[in-house]
## 1
Amino acid sequence: MVLTAEIREQFLAEPHVGALSVVERPDRAPLVVPIWYQYTPGGDLWIRTPPGARKARAIEATGRFTLMVQRISPTVRYVSVEGPVTGTGPSADEQTREMVSRYLPPEKVAPFLDFERTHIGEHIVISMRPEHWLSSDLGPA
């Protein structure tokens, strides 16, 4: 069953790990990688990544990407969105904390932020406006 616009946006707003897909080279299948993301219904979706990452370079080259999220319980449900990049810039401290807090328990946030600062380094934020949606819930009606 296809999800209504309201249900699919609420589902996308939940903290699932996304599968980001972007065309990296015309002679290859798309690059697909797991990623944390943030989305508020009706707004743009955004991700964080190191600026030199393969996915960042591919997104910059193509100007768009796809993100798919899913669950398997209590029913199989997925939402996939594709659209153009609406902005790219440095990741602010508030965005970093917001993203990490979305996925980790409170006691793990500060250690992760310290680790990222000392071992991973700079990140950028890439925003995307969802233009095309695919969604389904395979549970009972």
Note: The beta strands are 18-22, 31-35, 37-39, 45-49, 64-71, 77-90, 124-128, 132-137.
## 2
Amino acid sequence: MDFTLEVIPLPVTDIDRARDFYRDKVGFHVDIDQEVMPGMRIVQLTPPGSGCSIALGDAIWDMGQGQTRPEAGSYQGLQLCVADIKAAHAELTGRGLEVSEPVQYAPDDGATFMYFKDPDGNGWAVQEYRRRGAEPLHKVLADPKHRG
């Protein structure tokens, strides 16, 4: 049985501000922005090309038994991957996102990163993985020889 990671609830203080940030500055697509049940608004956003989304909402953690609500800004190390970090940096800064300059930690593919935070302080990394230009993850995972 496949278990796919598709949605990560993200703790924020202001859903509208966070939605606008991820949509306008980071370029995520707004999939859902509605009250899904009385008193429970969900905003789900997906990065272009991703199979995993983030979900913003006040009552998301109330649904899970025994789940505690994390503090807004407490998530660190969320990671996006791109095939060309210089192009991604230009695109993000062009949208007005404050993102660090790319840092190459080693010459290997996958060793260059840049970083940004959302308005609440949730921390993101953007990793350059050049191989994804020729081998998008969804195609790699669909190939039976890559299944474990």
Note: The first strand starts at residue 7 and ends at 9.
## 3
Amino acid sequence: MYSRFVALRIRPAGREIREATAGVELAESWLLAEWSAGEPGPVQFWLSDLPENTPLTILVRLAKLRWRIEHDYRELKQPLGLVHFEGRSFNGWHHLVTLASLAQVFCTLRRLAAAPKAAASV
């Protein structure tokens, strides 16, 4: 997969923002845009309040980190059973979350051990 990225410093504006902040302008933010290969224009956008000196590579890595988080959460819910809790006590829920988290760590370590070259490039 190949994409091009551009990051610009912008100041968000708009009537709703001014009304919500009592007319105060918001601080400058990063606008990150992604063009996927073969697309005529940008396909995804992100706003970030990271410092002005943040390199483009860091902005892209953090924006794309969302995919990893969503994948891990989906794995916790279905294959590792987080959605199957039907108890009513905090202790029962706490035990399930703890065991599901440990299972997630185990699965992640196994996946990284099976593909050491992919893990080294992350």
Note: Strands lie at 3-10, 29-36, 44-48.
## 4
Amino acid sequence: MTKTQRILAAIALAGAAAGLAAPAASAAPISPLTLPDLPSAPGTPAGAQPASVQEIGGQVGAGLDQLNQLMELPNQLAPVIAPVQPLTDLAGGLQ
């Protein structure tokens, strides 16, 4: 066995041992995750920047909801576009 093969075998053995130990470690109860408040720069007006990680998460969630509504716009416009679709296809074919 070469030195490289021995090193790879040792890494594989360590990975297997860690994989066997993982189910025992995951059986322990998980404590809730608490996030600290973010520090604010001195002199910034109140409300100018988010004060906590939870507030940032709420703003990101609201933005994702708006993006999802924008992604649904073509589906909502399909009934309006359907009657004109043959004309637009014809106009596209004339180019």
Note: The helical segments are 3-26, 53-71, 73-81, 85-93.
